[in-house]
Amino acid sequence: MSPANKGNAEILADPGSFRQAVAHAREKFGKIKGVVSVGMGQKETGARYKDDIAIVFFVREKKKEAELSPEERIPDVFEGYLTDVRTVRKAAFHACDNTAVYDTIQGGIQITGPMNGITGQFHAGTLSAIVKRRNNSDRDNVYLLTNKHVLFIDASKAGEYVYHPFCPTPNKNFVAPGPSNTLGPIQPEALIANVDFVNPNTSTHAQFFIDCATARIDIDSKCLGTRCTKDQIKTANEVIDLQLNGVNTITDVRSVIGDPSLIQIPLSLDLPVSAGSIPSKLILIQPQPPAALTAKAMPVSASKAIQAL
Predict the structure, then answer these.
(1) 123 in any annotated domain
(2) Statement to judge: residues 114 and 79 lie in one domain
(3) Stretch 173-180: mean pLDDT
(4) How far is residue 111's CA from residue 107's CA, in Å, rounded to a whole number?
(5) pLDDT the model gives residue 85
(6) Taking the alpha carbons of 178, 179, 182, 188 in that order, is the dihedral positive or negative?
(7) Which of 97, 155, 250, 271 has its CB surrounded by the most CB atoms within 10 Å?
(8) How far is residue 217 from each of residues 181, 190, 230, 279, 308, measured CA to CA in Å?
(9) What is the pTM of this model?
(10) Is 142 within 8 Å of 215 (Cβ atoms)?
(11) What pLDDT, in 10s, does the model give residues 140-160?
(12) pLDDT tens digit string along 204-253?
């Protein structure tokens, strides 16, 4: 094995050559059965992310060297750069398993959209985080962030209401599934797609899987168009059962970079891009990497609560 002679300093000094090597690796190994994709990122050792930048190979499963032909073996060093082989985590849509009632609306709790008045079906999901729109100081600027597959399902649409933890019944033909508290209306901006994103600082292309939607939380009760009770619904920016570097509060998405239990690159979801462009009110979150990568940010996506708004 030839030693890596092009470390972080060389990569940051000549990122074009590094991207070219990544392209060469993708061309050489990308067609091998079991290789999902080839990209770049931090080298992972012992379930911890290091500061070393590497060419990253994502495979469906790792095999012993004896099971691979010489052409299928990924070297430890490619064109002078470190490599890293990771198994892709398969992603699937799951319902929230926390049906408790919370007085304070926060991330990690169960929410549901409206019940179908004909079939009685409803779909539960997880509230990811409490968010606010930028440059808006209005007290009504309080929203919940979740997935589009949670809110826009079974003919649910913008303007219909979101509930916690269960939805009410629309008529007497069905039994209430559980306690219900009205939160607020589903907002029209939503997206579920694989989206190609170009880092404006480096012109690096990266593909992000985006599955996001929001609903306004009506924190005040209103009577005839005026507020009759303020702070009827209390919210918090905490996330139930989330431990992000020892705390359960997300104050900056960049904090996920130090917690490898939350980082997955990439999720194995092959969904077609259904939107021609990203709605203007949606932004891609690209966390700031560690000190060694500050000059050239690398794309990182997280599996829990880190999405796009």
Answers:
(1) yes
(2) no
(3) 91
(4) 10
(5) 92
(6) negative
(7) 250
(8) 11, 16, 13, 21, 18
(9) 0.55
(10) no
(11) 899 999 999 899 987 689 999
(12) 666 777 888 999 999 887 665 566 777 789 998 888 866 555 565 555 44
Residue 283 domain boundaries: 104-293
Closest alpha carbon to 257 in 308, 306, 187: 306
Quick check: 74 and 83 in contact, CB under 8 A?
A: yes
Q: Do 111 and 225 belong to one domain? A: yes
Residue 301 placed within a domain: no
- 15's enclosing H/E stretch is helix 15-29
Report the domain count for the chain: 2
In a domain, 212, yes or no: yes
Say what percent of the chain tops pLDDT 90: 29
The residues facing 190 across adjacent strands are 213
Same domain, 118 and 219: yes
Query: Does residue 172 lie in a domain region?
Result: yes
Q: Of 96-100, 120-124, 253-257, 263-267, which one has max mean pLDDT?
A: 120-124
Mean pLDDT rounded to a whole number for the chain: 75
Of the candidates 87, 147, 136, the residue with the CA atom closest to the CA atom of residue 113: 147
Cα separation, 194 vs 223, in Å, equals: 43
Domain identity same for 80 and 108:
no
Give the pair of three-digit tokens for residue 157.
Answer: 């649409």
Specify the pLDDT at position 41: 87
